[in-house]
Design goal:
- The longest helix has 16 residues.
- The strands form 3 sheets. A 6-stranded mixed beta sheet has the order 8-4-1-2-3-13, sandwiched between helices.
- Strand 9 and strand 10 form a beta hairpin.
- Helix 1 packs across helix 3.
- It is of the alpha/beta class.
């Protein structure tokens, strides 16, 4: 299973990420049946150029962002016509919808899911891009769906940046969903329940999966009163009390989106926040290793910051079935 993208069509071989502080891209190639990252590039953005939000303008300076993306795509070699696009989690509302019975017709299922999310949607559902993937089956037989709801106008802002850079965004997906796909692409379906924490300088997301089925999602924006390690601890308690949890087989902590992590009481480092999560949960956490899906063609080893940068991009292509 792969988590749904906001819009999908046949898989490209280039992925780009537009984040508040940088744009980045990778190209994947096949050599002798092995996937390799043939090129990668990134460029920092000025403060305020991208401001992710459910409502309102997200790309505050489209010229600056599109020019930066044009430059990094040029560094990949050639000009990709189609790309997978990774966007911040906090442009979308993610919900779990449980249906006692699933309509056999896709059109009826789509209408039923839209009806379920209508009341909690932060904007008219008629203005939304709604996608969903099948999740867990409840003990009573109900089917859960993971639903991502984003304002169509907001998604189009990110797509327009790609268009101005000369590429069509054939796939659009949330950063944390792409990281989940990176784990699943590297190892298939991990046994048991597992937790993934995605840290960026501007937000943090927490997901719990039961095998390959997402059973919990939460996003925390910068500026919240609780620190991200505290929220992870609360999530672990909720998992045990409300989700029938018996312990995490794995805890994965990863970061993306640049430096200057602000999801603690004071600005700190990614390693420091990860260490706090280790302490709160009493476990040794892991990171996402995208090289288990696609290795770099020009180096034997990569530093952790580079691995964090490319992980959601590799996951976006793995989830799209792009031959990785």
């Amino acid at each position: 299973m792969t988590l749904s993208s906001l819009f999908a069509s046949p898989a490209p071989s280039v992925a780009v990420q537009i984040a508040p502080r940088l744009v980045s891209a990778i190209a994947i190639a096949r050599h002798g049946g092995t996937s390799v990252i043939s090129a990668h590039a990134m460029e920092a953005l000025p403060a305020g150029a991208v401001a992710p939000a459910l409502n309102g303008q997200n790309i505050a300076d489209r010229r600056v962002v599109s020019q930066a993306l044009t430059r990094i795509l040029g560094l990949l070699g050639g000009r990709p016509r189609r790309v997978a696009l990774v966007v911040p989690d906090n442009i979308a509302k993610v919900s779990l919808v449980r249906l006692d019975s699933v309509p056999p017709r896709a059109q009826d299922l789509d209408q039923l899911i839209r009806w379920h999310v209508r009341k909690s949607a932060p904007f008219p559902v008629e203005e939304a891009q709604v996608t969903y993937s099948r999740g867990a089956v409840s003990p009573e037989g109900g089917q859960e769906f993971v639903v991502a709801l984003a304002r169509r106008q907001v998604v189009e802002e990110y797509e327009a940046v790609c268009t101005e850079a000369g590429a069509h965004a054939g796939i659009v997906g949330l950063a944390t969903f792409s990281l989940v796909n990176a784990v699943l692409g590297a190892e298939g379906s991990p046994a048991g329940d597992w937790l993934l924490v995605h840290i960026t300088p501007d937000y943090g997301s927490i997901v719990i999966l039961r095998g390959q089925d997402l059973i919990f999602f939460r996003n925390r924006a910068e500026g919240s009163e609780e620190s991200l390690p505290d929220l992870v601890h609360q999530t672990a308690m909720y998992y045990e009390d409300r989700l029938g949890g018996t312990g995490f087989a794995r805890v994965v902590v990863t970061g993306s989106g640049g430096e200057g992590w602000n999801l603690a009481p004071t600005p700190t480092t990614f390693d420091a926040i990860r260490g706090q999560i280790d302490t709160r949960l009493g476990v040794r956490t892991e990171t996402v290793d995208p090289q288990r899906i696609a290795r770099f063609s020009d180096r034997i080893a990569a530093d952790p910051s580079l691995l964090n940068m490319v992980a959601p991009l590799v996951g976006a292509l793995a989830g799209a079935g792009a031959g990785v």
